[in-house]
Design goal:
nine-stranded mixed beta sheet, three-stranded antiparallel beta sheet, 20% strand, globular, binds S-adenosylmethionine, binds iron/sulfur cluster
Length: 451
């Protein structure tokens, strides 16, 4: 049994570590990768193949204090309408170079709050996307939904456009906590949103909730989880609240002394985790839960769980194209990221060019390290044979990498002939263990990578 103080000594409570939704992580991207690379990599997509498309809508009607997402509050439709025109122009640029016959295996609208679009705006956007790349047979179309910002007309429009999955923001059901984080949302509002989604045939429904919120206690998080379970979500994302007021200025509204300390955070996570497991949910990676029938649970059992910018996914597409301000695209050749500010993004697109501001071209052992990190984040283990066959890496190199990581964690990892695994007691350290394979983070910290 590994105690909390041992976990703390190994670095759990005092280090800011990436969430590893990509490798290298976005802060490592560089400005040498621009629109040229983005164009070239899109043009290299195989004709007739399927890809995934992410569309970013960086607007919300309300700005919740706790939220660290890059999003802009607006009560007016004019900026949203202007942004949609930019998206249409970006889609037109894509159409010029996208090889023939490409279809979408996945389409995701995220934000911000995509559901602040009016039904007409939603129809126009869905139509413009379909004119460039239609949904493939059996495709999944998912939308992030704020239960406060949705109604029957908008849901009908999304359903008619082919929405198959939805993700709702809940955060916590406790009224005092909701007040403290600037996000008031009654149980009834959430319940009604779920009912409206189910009535439109949504079979895969995700809910986001948070641990580590102000005033959260074991009893309160247990109560929130029970309320959530009464709504039978297919998936749950249980994120740790990230308090970063120097990046997300509105978080200054949240009193730091009302936040649980790191030991309490771990306890809150564990309380929620146990309730989901008792209720029959499968644990998915470090912070998700899914019913055994859900796609994520099935993917985990067959070893097909992946990590992308939205977190855990069963999407196996090699290409993910990101549209809109700050959106990131992934190609077999590397990553590209659009200009983060809406104004900069709009300026470039209106001038007839993609707004790619930074990115990363895969080189050296990036692909090998990316797979090790993804496998640890998804499966808590990585197989030596997969690495030697897929990447042609010599066994000695893999052994050296694993031994180096194990040494950093006092020999507590499970190292064997077949690979490396993180024992259950050490799982709270998964992001830290993944970071020990991150050559960019290591060189930033002044250490030389193991190989
Ligand atoms: C785009 S929102 C979800 C959709 C919709 N806008 C809503 O609020 O219902 C993204 C999610 O990111 C998570 N999130 C935002 N800020 C966070 C923070 N500071 N720490 C951890 N998770 C956060 C929340 O769980 C939130 O539901
Ligand atoms: S939590 Fe959702 S609605 Fe609230 S500010 Fe963030 S993106 Fe907007």
């Amino acid at each position: 049994m590994i105690t909390n103080s041992r976990l703390a000594a190994l670095g759990l409570f005092d280090t800011r570590v990436p969430r590893y939704t990509s490798y290298p992580t976005a802060p490592q991207f560089n400005a040498a990768i621009g629109a040229d690379s983005h164009r070239r990599w899109i043009a290299a997509i195989a004709p007739g193949s399927t890809v995934s498309l992410y569309v970013h809508i960086p607007f919300c009607r309300r700005l919740c204090w706790f939220c660290a997402c890059r999003t802009q509050g607006t009560q007016k439709d004019a900026p949203v309408r202007a942004y949609l025109q930019t998206l249409q122009a970006e889609l037109a640029l894509l159409k010029q170079i996208l090889p023939d016959g490409v279809e979408l295996a996945r389409l995701h609208w995220g934000g911000g709050t995509p559901t602040l679009l009016s039904p007409t705006m939603m129809q126009d956007l869905a139509g413009a996307i379909a004119a460039v790349a239609p949904l493939a047979e059996g495709a999944e179309f998912s939308v992030e939904i704020d239960p406060n910002e949705i109604d029957a007309a908008r849901l009908d429009t999304l359903a008619a456009a082919g929405m198959t999955r939805a993700s709702i923001g809940v955060q916590d059901f406790d009224p005092q906590i909701q007040q403290a984080i600037g996000r008031v949302q009654s149980y009834e509002v959430t319940r009604d949103a779920v009912a409206m989604l189910r009535a439109r045939g949504i079979r895969s429904l995700n809910a986001d909730i948070l641990y580590g919120l102000p005033h959260q206690s074991r009893g309160r998080i247990a109560d929130s989880v029970q309320k959530l379970l009464s709504l039978h979500p297919d998936r749950v994302a249980l994120y740790g609240y990230a308090h970063v007021p120097w990046m997300a200025r509105r978080q200054a509204m949240i009193a730091t002394d009302s936040l649980p300390d790191p030991q309490q955070r771990l306890d809150l996570f564990e309380t929620a985790r146990r309730l989901f497991v008792w209720d029959g949910y499968d644990e998915i990676g470090i912070d998700h839960f899914a019913t055994p029938q859900d796609g994520l649970g099935r993917a985990r059992r067959r070893g097909g769980l992946r990590r992308n910018f939205q977190g855990y996914t069963d999407d196996s597409s090699e290409v993910l194209i990101g549209l809109g301000a700050s959106a990131i695209s992934r190609f077999p050749q590397g990553y590209t990221q659009n200009a983060a500010a809406t104004s900069a993004h709009t300026g470039r697109i209106r001038a007839g060019e993609f707004s790619t501001a930074r990115g990363h071209a895969f080189a050296g052992d990036d692909a090998l390290r990316a797979r090790i990190i993804e496998a640890l984040m998804c499966d808590f283990r990585v197989e030596t044979e997969e690495l030697t066959t897929r990447f042609g890496a010599p066994r000695a190199q893999i052994d050296q990498l694993f031994a180096h990581a194990n040494h950093q964690f006092d020999g507590l990892l499970e190292l064997s002939e077949t690979g490396l695994a993180i024992p259950p007691d050490l799982r709270p350290l998964t992001r830290l263990i993944a970071r020990s394979f991150d050559a960019y983070e290591l060189s930033k910290a002044g250490h030389s990578p193991a190989i």
